[in-house]
Every structure is written in structure tokens, then in C-alpha cells.
């Protein structure tokens, strides 16, 4: 794992991806076992709110991996766009169809809308496609400074949306409808994606942040306290919690959290000896995309089987982490088993396998042609 991506090693980025994916699986397992967001978490509300940084961490790393600023002659922008579209669109369509079959939405319009914009966890892929299209637009229009322009404009767009949602929240004009609709648009997520892209182009800024982990940690703690405080304010004033991920006080926490974790991981491996636990987490980072795509369906299968066997099992202590670990490991096994096969291509969109297949066919045709000529 000596290869580097931007100014971060693959160990750091892959470890963060694994932690973010684990947080998402745990949150989804909790949401299916209990109706309440905070029913299971040992630390109550703060424990549940910690995991709201998981998706921003994914998006920050997605922005960080966009190589539009690379000067290498081997990088072709159009080829990269086609490759990403193939990698994302095929699995999105396949898993949307799978989730369509098990949808609990009785409304034909609701099912059709979800099929197009992503069932449950698949909204992330729909949003990522939007963000990549926006990045491509900025790269073509603004040139080498595309990331800075996207971060500036993205901050305005995301900030305006958060302000609007806050106004709806505290005036009692939103019962959660606008919050749910905003999930599937690029607007609330653009700032995190753009921040990752900008940090890739500004390694000096990234190094400064990672070198000042103490200051970053203090800012993270203060932002998290503000986040939790706003959550608790909703009870006496509103009597409900229609918003969670888009609370204005949580924006800073959700951006600083992934950066702080990156700083800690980079610091741990500075002496050249990477702890075994970090290596194990990093080894799973390359499979997080497939695990993310498949874990939700696996959770549904396991939970349905458990309820039929014993309806009280989901309410038993430890059922949430047990379900999360089982689903996560099963998804990991599935991804690794089908890797390099036609099924892996269909389910998880392995574009390099297609390229390799085409290359082998082209080589074979070239050899046949040479033999005929001789």
C-alpha cells in the first residue's frame, strides 16, 4: 500500500472509507430494528449523531479521488467520464431493479420515482452522478482552477439550502418532507464533495490541516457540541425531530470529522509501522463500494428470516450490532466472491474487467491477423 493518492496514502483513504461504510451499515441496521433513531445507541443522541458524518466522509473522499487536475499525459478526461458512468450507472440500474422488487411503497408513482432516483441507500449513487457531472462542468468551463470555483459556488449553494431548511424547521413549515426531498439532490452535499476536490488540488492546505490536529480536534468538539445542542432544542420548541442530517449546526462537524480522522490515521502511520488494525481496515477500503451497494438488501433478507424464526429477536439486546456485522461481512464475502466474474461486472460495475476483456479480444484478433498474413 505504498501508492499515494494526492497527498494522502491509500492506507488513510481506504481506512476512512471502511469506517464510513461501517457507520452506514450500523445506522441502517438500527433503522430497521427500531423505529426510533436513538433507541439502541449506547450513548443516546450523541452516539447516533456521530454517524451523520459517514456520508460526508464518502463524498469528501469521492471529491478527493477526482483526478481532473492531474498533469499526467495518461489521463484523458473524456475516457475518465465514460469509465465512471459505466462504473456507476450499471450497478445503480441493477440494484434499483432489485430494490424495486422488494419495495414496500404501494404507490406506483412513489415506486417509479424511487426507481429513477434511488431506493433507500441508492440515493447516494444518484447524488454522486450529479456531483461528478457538476465537477466535469466546472473542469470544462473554468479550467485548472475548477475545484476552487466549485468549492466557492458549492459553499454558496449548500449554505443557502441549509439556511432555507433551517427557516422551514424553526417556523414549523416542514414536517420532514423537504428534508427527505433534499437528500436526493446535489445541493446539500456539494460542499463536502467540492472540499475534497479542492484539498486534492491544494496539498499544502491539506498538509496544514493534518499537521494541526489539536486545533482541528478543538474545532470538531465545539462543532459537535453545537450540533447536539440544536438537536435537543427541537424537543421543547417543536416536539419532534423532522431534520437530522441537515441541521445547520452540524455542517462544520460533518466536514471536520472526516478530516480529523484522516489526520489521526496519517499520524499513526508516520513512523513507518502501520498498526495491524489499520491495515485490516484499509484492506477493506477497496471493497466498500460493493459492500455499500449490497448490504441493504442483505439486511432485509436477514431481518425477514429472523422475524419469521422468532419475532422477538430484533428487540433482543445486541441485535443491532449483530445484524450490522453479519450483513457487512456477508456483503464483503459476496463482493470478493464475484470479483472478476460477469456477475461482479453486473452487480458492482467493474469497468477495468471490461477493458481487459476488450484488450484480450483485440490482442487475439491481432494475432489471428498476423498468422493469416504469414
In short:
The chain has 374 residues and is mainly alpha-helical. The protein has helices at residues 10-33, 45-50, 54-64, 77-101, 108-117, 123-142, 146-170, 177-183, 190-201, 203-211, 213-238, 251-268, 276-285, 288-309, 319-338, 342-348, 351-373, and strands at 4-5, 8-9.
The major beta sheet can be summarized as: 2 strands, antiparallel
The arrangement of helices and strands along the chain is EEHHHHHHHHHHHHHHHHH
- Helicity level: over 70%
Low-confidence segments, given as residue ranges, are 1-7, 351-360, 365-374
Tell me, rounded to a whole number, the average pLDDT: 82
Number of domains: 1
Give the amount of beta strand, in percent.
Answer: under 5%
Q: Helix/strand/pairing class, anyone?
A: mainly alpha
How far the N terminus sits from the C terminus, by CA atoms, comes to: 45 Å
User: Radius of gyration in whole Å, from Cα?
Assistant: 22 Å
What general outline do the C-alpha atoms trace?
globular
Q: What is the count of β-strands?
A: 2
Count of helices?
Answer: 17
Q: Please state how the strands of the largest beta sheet are arranged side by side.
A: 1-2
